[in-house]
C-alpha cells in the first residue's frame, strides 16, 4: 500500500522491493563514502586474488613442488573455476542466515586464514609441516624409449595445496557474489543510470587491483621470493577487512530475508516432471506441498509472484548459459596463456647494468626477468583506459543519438573478441612450434626453473591479451548489469551468484578439456618433455576452443534475439523498458 511504504520503482513481475535498513545520514554525502569503501575493498581483494592466480602455474612448476606443466595449468583452472562456481554458496548463506554485510566480513576472515596457509607452503619448514618430505625423483630420462607411455607422478603436496586453493576460492567467491550486489544497494535509490555507472567503476576498481598485483606482486614472486609475495597478499586481505569494518556506519544494510531457491526448485519440478510431482505431493501431509510463502503469514512474495519470478528466470538462464564457452576462452589468460609465455623468450630487466644485480644473479649471467604475468597488464590496461572512456564519452554520446546497444548485443561483441584472441594464440603457438621443430631453442632461467623457449619475444603475446581485455568490456561488464537488472528484486543476490557460478563452470570445463587432452594420445600429453610443452600440440587446443566459442555464439545470437523480442513486446504496449535509461 502506498501509505505504508516509500515509493519504489515497480517491477514487471509485480513484486515488492524489500525494505532496506538505513542509518541516519546525509544522502549525497554518505552514499559516496559507502560506494568508495566498497570499491576500495574490491580493489584490495582483487589484488590478493590476482596475486595468487597470476603466478600459480609458475609456483607449482617450481623446484619446490616439481609439478608438470599440465598439472599446474589444471590446478590454476580448478582454482579459478571454483572461485566462481562456489559463488551461489556465499549468496545463499547471505540471503538465508547472515545478510550480505556479515557474509562479506566472515568471508574476508576466511580469506585471511587461507592466504596465511598458502604463505606457509612457501618456506621449507611450512612445507614439511603441511606436506611432509618431498620424495626424491630418480635421475634419468623421463621416458627412456621413443613412443613409450608414461604418466606423470602424483604432484607433491597436492592435497594440502588443493585444500588451501579451495578455501581461497570459497572466500573469494563469497566476497565477489555479495560485494557486487552490496555495492549496488548503496546506489540503488539514485536510479538506473547510477547502477550502470557503479558497475563500470566496480569493474575499473577490479583492474586497478590487478595492476597493483601484477606490477608488484608478480615481480616479487618471480624474481625475489614467493614467501614475500604471499605475505603481501595476507596484508592486502587484512587491510580490506579493516576498511570494511571501519566503513560499516556509512553502509545501507539489508537483513537476511530468506531464499527463494527452494520455491524455484519446486516450481521447476512441477513444470519438468508433473507426474513425479503429483506422486510426491500425494505422499506429503496436507499443506506440505505448498510453497513456503503460501504457508507463512509473514510478508514476502506471494505465490503469484513466485510464478512470475520463475518465468523471468526461465527466460534469463538460457542467455547466461550460452556465455559458458566464452568463460572457457577467458580463463585461458591465467592458465595456458601463461604456460605458453614461459616458453617464449623473456627479456631481462636492466641487462646492461651489472651493478644493479646481486652476486647470485651475476653468477647466473642474467638480470631480473620480466615477470610473465606482466602480459596480463595488456588486458588490464585496456580496461583501465576504455572503461572511463566508455562511461564518460562513448555511452553518453550513443545514448543521445539513441544508438546505445543493449547489454545482450554488447555480450555478442565480447564473444567475437574472445574468439579472435584464442585464434591469435593458436597461430602464435603454431609459429612457436615451427622454431622448436627446427631445434631453434633458447635456454632461460625463470626463478629456479629452466625453460627451453623458442626465440620469439614474449611481446608477441600482447595482441591476444589485448583482445581478451576488449572482450571483457563487452561481455563481462554488460553480463553483470544484465544479471542484476533483469532478475527479480528478491533474487538479485542469487542471480549474481548464478552468473559467477556459470563463469566457474566455464573454467572447470576448460580444466576438464585440458585433463582429457593430457591422457595418452592426447594433444597435451608430452611426459617426455619433463614439464615443458615443446612436444605438445597446444595450438590445436586453442583452435578447438575457438570452434566451440564460434558454434555457441551462433546459438547465443538466436536466444538473445528471441529474449529481446519477447521483452520489447509487452514494453512497447504498456510502458518503457527498465533499461532504457
TrEMBL record:
Annotated compartments: Endosome membrane; Lysosome membrane
Signal peptide segment: none
SUPFAM superfamilies: MFS general substrate transporter (SSF103473)
Pfam families the UniProt entry points to: PTR2 (PF00854)
Gene Ontology molecular function: dipeptide transmembrane transporter activity; peptidoglycan transmembrane transporter activity; symporter activity
Region ranges (Disordered): 278-302
TM ranges: 30-52, 72-94, 103-123, 160-179, 200-220, 226-247, 373-390, 411-428, 496-520, 540-559
Family (UniProt): Belongs to the major facilitator superfamily. Proton-dependent oligopeptide transporter (POT/PTR) (TC 2.A.17) family.
Listed PANTHER family: OLIGOPEPTIDE TRANSPORTER-RELATED (PTHR11654)
Stated name of the protein: Solute carrier family 15 member 3
Species name: Monodon monoceros (Narwhal)
Lineage start: Eukaryota, Metazoa, Chordata, Craniata, Vertebrata
Gene name of this polypeptide: SLC15A3
